[in-house]
Amino acid sequence: MPTNAALDRQSLPFLTGDPKRLLIGGEWVESASGRTFPSIDPSTGATIAEIAQADPDDVNRAVAAARAAFEGPWRSLTPAARQSIIWQVADVIEANAAELRRLEAVDMGMPIGRDPGAGADKLVEVLRYFAGFATKIHGRTLPNSMPWQILTYTSHEPVGVVASIIPWNSPINNVLWKLAPVLASGCTMVLKPAEEASLVALRIGELLSGTDLPDGVVNIVTGFGEAGAALVEHPGVDKVAFTGSTATGQAIVRASAGNLKRLTLELGGKSPDVVFADADFRRAVPGVAMGVFGNSGQACCAGTRIFVERPIFEEFAAALTAYTAKLKVGPSLDPQTRIGPLVSQAQLSRVTGYLDIGREAGARVLAGGARLTDGDLANGYFVPPTLLADVTDDMAVVREEIFGPVGCLLPFDTVEEVAARSNDTEFGLAGGIWTTNLGNAHRLAALMRTGTVWVNTYNLFDPAVPFGGYKMSGWGHENGPDALGQYLTTKAVWVRTD
């Protein structure tokens, strides 16, 4: 059985050789400073690669390359040619899906044995979905009330150079969700992956070289906040598409004001997952558990506030605790692992800090509750799936986004009550409902102030279905026609014909 500690480097040749470089204008180049930083396997704490650390000079070069491609070869392609290239990109990523999934596992700790439906070979469908739009971007002919013969029509044009800044929690997904609408719209991009998990983005950059994608359409700069800030502030960037924390999103809003950049922000969450007394336990127990603990809770839409109708509260809490105890925690390359490590030492400290805060506030630990330090897990960043009871809505563990495998159980009595409590948060990204009464499902779904509501399921995504948030969970959407529109700008044309 493979483990991260015995990683076969021949199965991931991308991890061998010299430090990973920046992709700028179709060339792999060192950073201007020559500095690098380590990439850490969170299952072992071991360094698996060195990565170039970009600075503002590198960002300047990348933005210039993206601008040259936008004004040059990329813009001159027909929609059908652009569509064909996106299909090529999808095919080459799909052909290398197994490698990308293994790389993702050691890059940030996502278990290799998770649901196969979440793999890179399925995620490429977002590319094929958006490829179809490349030939369907069109304006309208509009009536007008002028006293002369005037033809008025609109066209939709690509915004321009996009800074795509992504987090570490789902590397393949994060790259492809940003890449697909950029290519379909005719924009170009400078991609800045999170420093905790940059390897997948760089490998995808290598795979792009095997397609007909013109040089400079996709550029990749790796590094820390300095590079991200330089991108957001850069006058040559027309749009920022960011996924990450709400605090960073707020900073991006302020920094983008210089040239009034377009913004798409997919930010934090503290999602409610509501279980009614008539819920089907066979679905609700595993669904609620993995809604919290999937990817070790490192998901912006994790259903961490678990509201359970009072008549079944104790029974459901016991069933959920028993299910949680059976989830195998282990190295990300072990196919039996269901709960992998947290991404970094910093994230480990954050999560265990919240566990201390919860206990000090009076929370009762039903499962988990402390870092795992035994045997093969001692050097990794492992926290078992944790359930907290005896919590109240005003506790920090209930109100603040922990971004770890921690769920809080809270009883409720009425639909109106749970709706109000679900909405009593600064976030509004997602929510879940478990019931066999579709009247209650529709009623509560209408009352929830969230961008997505799942009923009798959780964490389902599709390229055709928009994903975005209310309130402090962000602006705009990923996926669906709504997402494409955020990469386009509308032009009105007036033609006097008399």
TrEMBL record:
<protein>
    <submittedName>
        <fullName>NAD/NADP-dependent betaine aldehyde dehydrogenase</fullName>
        <ecNumber>1.2.1.8</ecNumber>
    </submittedName>
</protein>
<dbReference type="InterPro" id="IPR016161">
    <property type="entry name" value="Ald_DH/histidinol_DH"/>
</dbReference>
<feature type="active site">
    <location>
        <position position="266"/>
    </location>
</feature>
<dbReference type="InterPro" id="IPR015590">
    <property type="entry name" value="Aldehyde_DH_dom"/>
</dbReference>
<dbReference type="Pfam" id="PF00171">
    <property type="entry name" value="Aldedh"/>
</dbReference>
<dbReference type="InterPro" id="IPR016160">
    <property type="entry name" value="Ald_DH_CS_CYS"/>
</dbReference>
<comment type="similarity">
    <text>Belongs to the aldehyde dehydrogenase family.</text>
</comment>
<feature type="domain" description="Aldehyde dehydrogenase">
    <location>
        <begin position="28"/>
        <end position="493"/>
    </location>
</feature>
<keyword id="KW-0560">Oxidoreductase</keyword>
<dbReference type="InterPro" id="IPR029510">
    <property type="entry name" value="Ald_DH_CS_GLU"/>
</dbReference>
<dbReference type="GO" id="GO:0008802">
    <property type="term" value="F:betaine-aldehyde dehydrogenase (NAD+) activity"/>
</dbReference>
<dbReference type="InterPro" id="IPR016162">
    <property type="entry name" value="Ald_DH_N"/>
</dbReference>
<dbReference type="InterPro" id="IPR016163">
    <property type="entry name" value="Ald_DH_C"/>
</dbReference>
